Amino acid sequence: MAEYERALFRVYDRTLDSMRNDQPYFYGERFQRLRPSNVCRAVEYGLLCFALLLVGMLFVLHGSFVGNGVCLHNELSALRDLRMLTADPLAPNATAPSKPSLLTNSDILQIRLSQGGGGSNFPEKLEKLQKAAAAHVAAHPDATVLHHMPYENWTMPNQPDFVPNYRFSRNPPLLYLSDGFVANHDLNLINITLSTTCLSSGNGLAAFAASVAGWDGVMMNQVMYSIRDSGMLENAITDEIWPWGKGTLAPEGGRGFGEWIGFRVNTLVKSGLAFFFTSTVTALIVRMLISSGVVVMFPLFICLRRIGLQTLDMQILTMSYPWLGIPVDRLRQQNKPIAPLITAHLVRVLVLYSMYEACQLAWGVWLYDKPVPAGLQLWVYGIVMIWEYYSMIYLRCIAAIYYLPKFTLVYFMLFHFYFYGYAYAFFEVALLATFTMMIHSMLFCLYHLELPASERLEVSYDNPRALFTTLPWPAWEASLPPSWTLFLPLNARHRNIYEEDENGNVIGGGGAADDGGGEEGGAADGGGGEEGE
Q: pLDDT tens digit string along 158-215?
């Protein structure tokens, strides 16, 4: 099993080699400062500053837009009153109906965004109509007020050039109907223009942040918290849709103490489950891709040799991937076919990766069952895969193994607390900040922890990982560690020959110190990700 770790260590060692030498990337006096140490520090501080900028941007966006539906609510309230005033007069002695909801199930709301001012101004139009009606009543106290106002401000026939940015309906199937079908049936197509000044309440910084992050989150909150009912919003430009139920929204009066506690406990449990499933299954798929995915190199080399590139030496593959190369060599020496072995590994890759993709679909239903930006789930899985690859290859010294999994856990949980805490918020900005902080932590561990550990021989070719798991039986060095060893605790560590105790006495001997794992036998790798903490 040690050969597998040593193969990964070679990638790790080549990465650190340029950092140890710390030579300029280019010749010339003007490039003397352009060396790995300076570049690493610059990137490290740049990532930290960018992450803080994103967090500040998230605070501005969240405080200005999340839970805010005032702008759209004012327009729809005025429009509802306009529709009531322009309705046919009631018959004598008829009972006046109660005030209807802002939108009915036969309404399709189309929203156009306007930079700066220039909104629909339905409240002003309502006020003018009410003043005209009051003046008419004052001038003709014995006459009946005529209720008449054309619908030219909000119906499609009178606004052919209206191009919406968003469409909403309380009855989601209506959004799939064609314009011709809507025009020929008893459906109301309501056109509203909202200005960015109204949406941001005149806050220029919030409007600028929303223009950078996108207006989807702003409009989702406007629609959700103005209608306060189930429905579906569609981005008419990107065709992205967000359906939701009434239960997605927090109660209008807020949650009681018991409900609040239950909600927070549910958020904690779902965040923990999301971390557990994504990290463990991704660790398995990364182990499989590194161990079996490289098998495609063997038929490729064989094909290249058969077409005339005889200079390609199969020993290169044997030394690079000994867990596959040595079995292939043994089969060739015994004049046995290698196709079944290669095919078995390829089928393993196909089956397990298909299962991984199926898991993503299942998690989308179980763990992300709410309106989310398009691709958010894939971003989460991609981030987890990046840190699992990093853990497999670069997480080797004691300090990094101890600290980095805890930082990634905290960042992951903080994002999911935010994700589950609100019906819809600026999740893309929060996830980008989380990813930036994770990359910063990885770079910090590589430069400030792994590099010094490599220089003091805490990690070396003979001791490729400082902490690992020992198995109480011998194993072939070129074999792959079993997949289930990813979930074993780390129970042993290597000590180099120069290590001293607190009294200055040399205690190292280049071997492994057992921390309760039983007799030392085969060693399974200890860097399978967060579950190896």
A: 566 778 899 999 988 888 887 778 777 778 788 888 888 888 888 889 999 999 999 9
Q: What contacts 298, CB < 8 A, 6 or more positions away?
A: 317, 324, 328, 338, 342
Q: What is the pLDDT of residue 155?
A: 47
> Cα torsion at 229, 230, 231, 235 (round to 10°)?
80
Task: Note the pTM of the prediction, 2 decimals.
Answer: 0.82
Strand arrangement, sheet containing 241-244: 188-195, 107-114, 166-169, 231-235, 241-244
Per DSSP, helices labelled H in 110-256 are 122-139, 179-183, 196-199, 204-213, 216-227
Q: What's the angle, vertex CA 371, arms to CA 369 and CA 375, rounded to 5? A: 90
H-type alpha helices, 367-475 = 376-394, 398-421, 427-444, 451-455
3-state secondary structure 18-50: HHHHCCCCCCCHHHCCCCHHHHHHHHHHHHHHH
Which is nearest to 531 in space by CA: 185, 357, 275, 208? 275
H or E stretch including 107?
A: strand 107-114
The span from the CA of 258 to the CA of 141, in Å, is 56
The SS3 call for residue 459 is coil
Handedness of CA 266, 268, 270, 276 (dihedral sign): negative
Whether 114 and 170 have beta carbons less than 8 Å apart is answered as: no
Q: Is the dihedral of CA 54, 426, 437, 290 positive or negative?
A: negative
The residue among 123, 130, 135 whose CA lies nearest residue 149 is 130
Residue in 144, 1, 137, 81 with CA at minimum distance from that of residue 523: 1
